[in-house]
């Protein structure tokens, strides 16, 4: 008999074969209800042989043959009357590390992460990664649909791209190498190599000494880079259109998951574009909040999002025209606003989820800018060389997958949106 999945059962079948884990056991005088969970959902099984119950424990893997019967009172409106049940994956515990079948979570995030193989069995935890998977699907589908090519660039690299202090070093035979902070140089290089428009879904590594609710030391970067642009406005248009596509996609592919988190995604209208200096001025005037030079701090991002929500009814805001001193050396200066750049961040519900901008594409200008930043163009070897051969005007951006997931689902900590987080205190499981 072919296996059926729980949400496929119509209630009209003569018999079904189900496989999954025991989610809950509820014993009555003459029968028991055993809830079975598979990757699609949970169904109630009616067990009349109480002797068989003796051998059952929650979270065992079992196989059940039974007859579906409609029952309004059961979850999903169907229950299965068991004809045959066998244990196919035994358990070896006295007590689970924490219960996973109660509405209320009775453990800490750290405990959940230590026992990821158990905590992910909670349907609401599993839902986070369904949403994450669909974000990736939407990203890939959208950019492929727009004629972008998917690339895979090395994660073991010879030099940093975003500033030297945040690099993990690795021994690469008899030389020192680094883990990539970003595919920045390679994605630009591929635009120039004739791909024109590329995207990458890959890991990025940051040796940042930040142990906060929004930092990871390893995260998934959704990168985009495209050539022959006019300016950074083109890039913000692309980012906005992707967000619009993403929300549409999630509404249809994650209806159940969004409901679990009591969320309704809004239609995305025009995302406001506000220069950073203007945001800093507003923060000072409206909230008496001072900002660090050339940026907003975490509190500033939260307060400014609140302001934008009230004024523009938008959960998103682009901050534009970051000062050159606060952006990497590849960032295109703004020809109108002295000292500023054609770069931007996208803030979503109080958190930066994207950085992007137009890049310097002229070989001589890039070399000059590297020197201005106190560097030596020769240290950038292949990267600088690749600009000698007709590099078109180009730019791009990168979104942090975990940050995006976290904010869409309104989670409190980025680790909740990370399958197996790597942070300053965690390198297992
Ligand atoms: P940036 O360094 O701002 O830009 O990173 C882009 C986006 O990646 C995510 N991110 C992180 N997520 C979790 N933990 C971290 N430690 C972390 N660091 C970054 C954020 C951030 O907005 N090369 C540029 C992008 C570009 O211009 O194309 C870059 O890497 O969501």
UniProtKB/TrEMBL annotation:
Source species of the chain: Clostridium formicaceticum
Family: Belongs to the class-II aminoacyl-tRNA synthetase family. Type 2 subfamily.
Assigned keywords, A-Z: Aminoacyl-tRNA synthetase, ATP-binding, Cytoplasm, Ligase, Nucleotide-binding, Protein biosynthesis
Function: Catalyzes the attachment of L-aspartate to tRNA(Asp) in a two-step reaction: L-aspartate is first activated by ATP to form Asp-AMP and then transferred to the acceptor end of tRNA(Asp).
HAMAP family xref list: Asp_tRNA_synth_type2
Chain residue ranges for the region called Aspartate: 184-187
Self-association state and partner proteins as the record states: Homodimer.
Listed name of the protein: Aspartate--tRNA ligase
């Amino acid at each position: 008999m072919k296996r059926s999945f729980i949400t496929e059962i119509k209630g009209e079948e003569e018999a079904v074969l189900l496989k999954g884990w025991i989610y809950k056991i509820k014993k009555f005088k003459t029968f028991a209800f055993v809830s079975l969970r598979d990757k699609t959902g949970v169904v109630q099984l009616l067990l009349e042989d109480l002797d068989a119950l003796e051998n059952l424990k929650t979270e065992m893997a079992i196989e059940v043959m039974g007859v579906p019967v409609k029952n309004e009172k059961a979850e999903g409106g169907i229950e299965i009357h068991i004809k045959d049940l066998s244990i196919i994956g035994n358990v070896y515990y006295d007590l689970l590390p924490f219960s996973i079948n109660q509405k209320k979570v009775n453990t800490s995030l750290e405990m959940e992460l230590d026992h990821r193989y158990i905590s992910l069995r909670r349907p609401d935890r599993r839902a986070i990664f369904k949403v994450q998977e669909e974000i990736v699907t939407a990203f890939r589908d959208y950019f492929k649909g727009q004629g972008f090519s998917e690339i895979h660039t090395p994660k073991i690299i010879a030099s940093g791209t975003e500033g030297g202090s945040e690099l993990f070093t690795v021994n690469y035979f008899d030389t020192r190498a680094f883990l990539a902070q970003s595919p920045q140089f390679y994605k630009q290089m591929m635009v120039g190599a004739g791909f024109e428009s590329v995207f990458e879904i890959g890991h990025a590594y940051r040796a940042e000494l930040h142990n906060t609710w929004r930092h990871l030391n390893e995260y998934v970067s959704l990168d985009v880079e495209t050539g022959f642009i006019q300016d950074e406005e083109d890039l913000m248009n692309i980012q906005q259109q992707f967000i619009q596509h993403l929300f549409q996609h999630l509404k249809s592919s994650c209806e159940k998951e969004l409901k679990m988190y009591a969320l309704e995604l809004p239609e995305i209208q025009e995302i406001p574009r506000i220069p950073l200096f203007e945001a800093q001025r507003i923060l000072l005037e409206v909230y008496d909040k001072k900002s660090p030079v050339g940026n907003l701090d975490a509190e500033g991002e939260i307060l400014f999002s609140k302001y934008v929500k009230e004024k523009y009814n938008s959960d998103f805001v682009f901050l534009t025209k970051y000062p050159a001193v606060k952006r990497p050396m590849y960032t295109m200066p703004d020809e109108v606003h002295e000292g500023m750049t054609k770069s931007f961040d996208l803030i979503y519900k109080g958190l930066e989820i994207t950085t992007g901008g137009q890049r310097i594409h002229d070989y001589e200008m890039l070399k000059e800018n590297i020197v201005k930043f106190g560097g030596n163009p020769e240290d950038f070897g292949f990267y600088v060389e690749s600009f000698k051969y007709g590099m078109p005007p180009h730019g791009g951006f990168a979104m942090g997958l975990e940050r995006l997931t976290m904010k869409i689902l309104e989670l409190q900590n980025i680790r909740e949106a990370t399958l197996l987080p790597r942070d300053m205190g965690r390198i297992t499981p």
